[in-house]
Amino acid sequence: MTLQACGGEGTPTEQVSQSDTTASDDDQFEYFAEQFADLKIIRYQIPGWDKLTAKQKEYVYYLYEAGLAGRDIIWDQNYRHNIAIRKALETIITNYSGDKTSEDWNNFMIYAKRVFFSNGIHHHYSMAKITPNFTQEYFSTLLEESRGSALNEEALKAMFDPSFDAKKVNLDPDKGLVKGSAVNFYSPDLTEAEVDAYYAKVIDKNDPEPISYGLNSMLMRNSQGEIEEFVYKSGGLYGSAIDKIIYWLEKASGVIENQPQADALKILIEYFRTGDLKKWDEYNIAWVGATEGDIDYIQGFVEVYNDPKGYTGSYESIIEINDFDASERMKMLMDNVQWFEDNSSIMDEHKKKNVVGVTYKVVNTAGEAGDASPSTPIGVNLPNANWIRSKHGSKSVSLGNIVHAYDKSGGKGFAEEFIRTEELRARSKEYSTLAGKLHTALHEVVGHASGQLNPGVGTPKETLKSYASTLEEGRADLVALYFLLDPKMVELGLMPSLEVGKAEYDSYIRNGMMLQLRRLEPGEVIEEAHMRNRQMVAAWCYEKGMADKVIEKKVIDGKTYFEVNDYEKLRGLFGELLREIQRIKSEGDYNAGRALVENYGVQVDADLHAEVLKRAEKLNSAPYGGFINPKLVPVMEGGKMVDVKVEYPSDFLEQMLDYGANHSFLAAH
Ligand SMILES: [Zn+2]
């Protein structure tokens, strides 16, 4: 499963930003690269790279090369003509020497970049075909003058006839899930009924540990006219790219960090060789068990969102490095978790005598490929097979440097628009990154672990029902907020001063009172649990502190701002609400819980909502973000890799052309 970033200005959620880079690095690094159509191209860094040994860097390098070696696979999976079309685009961009000032050329380049971004001619998110704003004649002229070989009739039709193979994945049953989807998991002559009949025949419904049927194959009619699975494997479908993947994985297995990693990698290579899905399960079990070491990866045919029938996995690769700073923060909180419990604002009877913190994992990605690039998830939870998850567990990670880069790529305009004074903007600029990380760490490690139910009271799911998750997220947020202004945080060395906590109070109130409303359409109420809890917390504190002007609403030149006047008093209110929500949870007080959520967390102030939408709209930020990957450059000495340097390219197109030239192992067909 993947966790996707929301639309809007690209920031996944306001409260998270977990990776680490030193402040000075961060100031100099340009996160935003460019924007075209509805897309924003962002750069990201690999924090902690220098903390890896040369051998670890070599391991990362091979894994990343293995990932890139399969890049062509996602292009072909997404649509059968994608590789041919991409090669034509690459040829034109590389060779064309005619007029590059015309509007036609400009439109051609935008089209090409959109196709590169989506790994094909269908939009990565809406699944609709990308429309070229130039004619077929113009394209043919470009291709001829660039000495490119002509595309076949059907590929041209795919590019220029909007009704032909119009949607990558169609989920409207009237149009046929299989026939209506352009995605290349089923040959075009197959119907949904035939696909269903095939799987009904092969799936063993009584197997408690079923393989992931169809995960690594394309369904086609064989020469006898029967439906057959053509398996992705060495010597099979996509064999030439898979052989390259195996080549790099074998190199990686020579520089592993520990034995469990070696065991898992060995099975993965075996799986790519044979295509045997039993091996894939075996690999996943070994991978879930390999928890030691600083480096991990996702590699293979994994998520099935692109298959309208949900069988076949899209190729993807994500290389992950432990986020050392986040781990350190987590350890510090873990070591002191009992102190936080003892000093919380909740009633003594609701405090745990022996509290155990919750572990959570933040990683930084060193490179992504396939379906995970350029558009990427911000978190991943695998494996997908339910029986493996329940029997052997799963790994859940948040991609810290990606979240951070999203955060940094669009913040400036928002700060200018929604933060009123220079002083507040300066504090936000200096401390909001650290504040966000500490909030997340406190929320996860201390917040969710805190408190206990009264004897005999059922689980929140039973007692608080549909309000349980909003109240739980609110409770964890409040634990974080309460301690973010505690001198203990400075004493533990987690923050340089309480200014960090104040920066978090400012942004939490601003977001909960108004900023998050930009995610809603006019007329909607708040449904999503995190959004409900943020407004509930902010609006409750605003109302309870109104007499003392703890939080003040200011309208200046028609623009509304919510500003904190008294941070200590606000901390007191956070503590008070925390105590109450813990009581609600501990006692299972449904009516009080419902009243809190319904009165403060659901309804939207229509005027304020309209204002926020208007102010956010004029910032004109592309709704979808994607990333330029770092480039890993080996340093060789006497035929031996002695180091790997990281370069941060800034040109999206250049990276796409580099991938096309140096990491392409499938022929167009
Ligand atoms: Zn939570």
Describe the structure.
A hairpin with a 2-residue loop joins strand 2 and strand 3. The model is unreliable at 6-24 (pLDDT under 50). A six-stranded mixed β-sheet has the order 1-9-10-8-7-6. It has a three-stranded mixed β-sheet with strand order 2-3-13, sandwiched between helices. A two-stranded antiparallel ribbon has the order 4-5. The protein has 669 residues and is of the alpha+beta class. The longest helix is centred in the middle third of the chain and has 26 residues, at 422-447. The radius of gyration is 26 Å and the shape is globular. It is built from 26 helices and 15 strands. Helix 9 runs antiparallel to helix 10 (259-274), helix 19 crosses helix 22 and helix 19 (468-484) packs antiparallel against helix 23 (567-587). Bound molecules: zinc ion (ZN).
Quick take:
This protein has 26 helices and 15 strands. The protein is an alpha+beta fold and 669 residues long.
Strand order of the largest sheet: 1-9-10-8-7-6
* Uncertain segments: 6-24
Average pLDDT figure: 93
Shape: globular
Total DSSP helices? 26
Characterize the largest beta sheet: strand count, sense, and whether it forms a barrel. Answer: 6 strands, mixed
- Termini distance? 31 Å
Helix/strand-derived class? alpha+beta
Instruction: Name the beta content range.
Output: 5-15%
- The rounded Rg comes to 26 Å
Helix content: 40-55%
Q: Which ions and ligands are bound to the chains?
A: zinc ion
Number of strands: 15
Compile the SSE list and pairings.
Blueprint: E1 2-3, H1 23-28, E2 32-36, E3 39-43, H2 54-69, H3 71-78, H4 82-95, H5 103-118, H6 136-145, H7 153-160, H8 192-202, E4 217-221, E5 227-231, H9 239-253, H10 259-274, H11 277-289, E6 295-301, E7 315-322, H12 324-335, H13 337-342, E8 362-370, E9 379-382, H14 386-392, E10 395-399, H15 400-409, H16 411-418, H17 422-447, H18 460-463, H19 468-484, H20 487-491, H21 499-513, H22 529-544, E11 551-556, E12 559-564, H23 567-587, H24 590-602, H25 606-617, E13 624-628, E14 631-637, E15 640-647, H26 652-662
Parallel strand pairs: 3-13, 8-10
Antiparallel strand pairs: 1-9, 2-3, 4-5, 6-7, 7-8, 9-10, 11-12, 14-15
Helix pairs in contact: 2-9, 9-10, 10-11, 12-17, 17-19, 17-21, 19-22, 19-23, 21-22, 22-23, 22-24
